[in-house]
Automatic annotation (TrEMBL):
Domain Helicase C-terminal: 214-364
Annotated Rhodanese domain residues: 216-270
UniProt enzyme class: isomerase
Portion of the parent chain present: 1 to 517 of 679
Membrane-crossing segments per the record: none
Family under the similarity heading: Belongs to the helicase family. RecQ subfamily.
Domain Helicase ATP-binding: 25-192
Entry's EC annotation: 5.6.2.4
Protein name: DNA helicase RecQ
Length: 517
């Protein structure tokens, strides 16, 4: 058999492996059970296609994406590889040809939709076909809590037992729960080698900013990048139209895009964006799936995304060409309230809601990070890295202060008022501002009244935002966002731990001239 390097260049025409590919290829070639987690576009297919050619026998690839299977089969055939597919998209002639090739042992790679596994004859057929490797693409489809659950994926375990061959599973979904579920379902009796790499996109500059006057912040960011292609993601459809208008008034070329638009209008925006060099699309998350533009120079979030995975995917649309790209994500207490209530009021089962809060917490932790953002982001995906030198926190180290005292005072105000109020009222109490509401509730008489006079109102707003970001306080959607203390705050209240808070975002917010958005 030729070496992996030789096949890489002679069959696939690539001069070198991408980050992470070679280790996976080596392990799969060596017949190990493997779970490889690589980002979309990271080059997963090569990690089973190359070993398929380096190993004896037939490689069966399970994939849920029919169009993608057909593309890959076409590509492999053009490269001279005997590949075929069994999917519902086949013509009868195609299916016959695959069966013939299976019979005479000439097939090297067989793609198969999971539905096929429900046919009784499939396992028997494959048992006779000399299978040497089972590859599972989009392996997160075995996860019941995932958005892409495919019941037929649960049959892969049986197939594996019947064939008794190594399994190489691939996914771009990196969170730990999904990973554990894939292992439990696909490898119940063995521990696969897990590879996780290639999540870094070093050319993308990462930055977050506390929401101050969001429209001005986005206009400033876009203004410094005039004439470049960019995307602004907004949390609501209505906002996309207003912001696109404001950008046009500031002299940009800008369109809005959301799922409520006619398909034809959406297509026009997609085509223009693809073709033009300097269009800004202001969109909801509906924009992106079909967009494959390599030279998007920047992505901004006017509102906080819903999870760290969503954030990663959305900023990842920038700079696919490898040239420098910029991002900016705005966030504030209203975003946190909105995202929490979307989770709480959704229809997901309780375990899922807990996991969704966890994914939101991970993003908030990134937003409130005190050190290199890329390190925080990559460590969430399981990758270790050094400080990147290409994020706002590497550019300017944040000024931090011991926020323990301020946080304890705030928690005390929350508890003494029965966890029934939002940040505004609590700040009035802390700063000794005897509003009508404070007087009516008798909150002037609380021992907490006025204990926070050393910080001004804007600073307190920053403290509360960071407390929500660290999940010390959660807004209760059922009670108009009243702030409730979480268990994570108890050690702080008991004096068992301390907490560092950022000062610079607070200062910046406090010193910024008020600009009407
Ligand atoms: P995904 O991980 O999303 O399945 P693909 O396997 O489709 O990604 O690969 C994404 C693209 O990268 C494809 O166009 C593929 O040809 C290309 N690619 C994969 N490996 C390499 C490599 N070693 N060198 C250059 N291009 C590669
Ligand atoms: Zn950094």
């Amino acid at each position: 058999m030729p070496s992996a390097d030789t096949i890489l260049s002679s069959v696939f025409g690539f001069s070198e492996f991408r980050p992470g590919q070679e280790e996976v290829v080596d392990a799969v070639c060596a017949g190990e059970d493997v779970l490889a987690i690589m980002p979309t576009g990271g080059g997963k297919s090569l990690c089973f296609q190359l070993p398929a050619l380096a190993r004896e026998g037939l490689t069966v690839v399970i994939s849920p994406l029919i169009a993608l299977m057909r593309d890959q089969v076409r590509g492999l055939r053009e490269a001279g590889v005997a590949a075929g597919a069994l999917t519902s998209g086949n013509t009868p002639e195609e299916t016959d040809a695959v069966f013939e090739a299976l019979e005479d042992g000439s097939l090297k790679i067989l793609y198969m939709a999971p539905e096929r596994l429900a046919h009784g004859g499939t396992v028997r057929l494959l048992s006779r076909a000399g299978v040497g490797l089972l590859a599972v693409d989009e392996a997160h489809c075995v996860s019941q809590w995932g958005h892409d659950f495919r019941p037929d994926y649960l049959r892969i375990g049986d197939l594996r037992r019947a064939l008794d061959v190594p399994v190489a599973a691939f996914t771009a979904t990196a969170d730990a729960e999904t990973r554990d579920e894939i292992i439990a379902r696909l490898f119940p009796d063995t521990a696969p080698r897990v590879f996780l790499r290639g999540f870094d996109r070093p050319n993308i500059h990462l930055a977050f900013a506390a929401k101050d006057s969001p429209r001005r912040q986005i206009l400033d960011f876009a203004g410094a990048r005039k004439g470049q292609s960019g995307i602004v993601y907004c949390g609501t459809r209505a906002k996309t139209e207003g912001l696109a208008q404001a950008l046009r008034e500031a002299g940009h070329m800008a369109c809005h895009y959301h799922g409520g638009m006619e398909a034809e209008d959406r297509r026009i925006v997609e085509t223009r964006f693809q073709r033009e060099d300097s269009l800004i699309v202001v969109a909801t998350v509906a924009f992106g799936m079909g967009v494959d533009k390599p030279d998007i120079r920047w992505v901004a979030h006017a509102d906080l995304p819903k999870s760290i995975e969503a954030y990663y995917q959305e900023i990842g649309r920038a700079g696919r060409d490898g040239a420098p790209a910029e991002t900016l994500t705005l966030f504030g207490p209203d975003d946190i309230r909105l995202r929490r209530s979307q989770i709480d009021e959704g229809l997901a089962p309780p375990e899922r809601k807990g996991a969704d809060h966890g994914r939101l917490n991970a993003l908030l932790g990134l937003a409130e990070a005190l050190r290199c953002r890329r390190q925080v982001l990559l460590s969430y995906f399981g990758e270790d890295s050094a400080a990147c030198g290409n994020c706002d926190l590497c550019d300017t180290a944040p000024e931090v202060f011991d926020g323990t005292d301020a946080v304890r005072k705030a928690l005390s105000a929350v508890l003494r008022t029965g966890e029934s109020f939002g940040a505004g009222h609590l700040i009035d109490i802390l700063t000794g501002n005897a509003t009508d509401k404070v007087r009516q509730r008798g909150h002037e008489d609380l021992p907490t009244f006025g204990v926070g006079r050393d910080l001004d109102k804007r600073t307190w707003q920053g403290v509360f935002r960071q407390m929500m970001g660290h999940d010390l306080l959660r807004p209760d959607a059922a009670r108009h966002g009243a702030l409730v203390m979480t268990d994570a705050a108890r050690p702080l209240l008991r004096g068992e731990t301390t907490i560092e808070l950022r000062r610079d975002t607070l200062r910046k917010a406090a010193h910024r001239p008020a600009v009407r958005a």
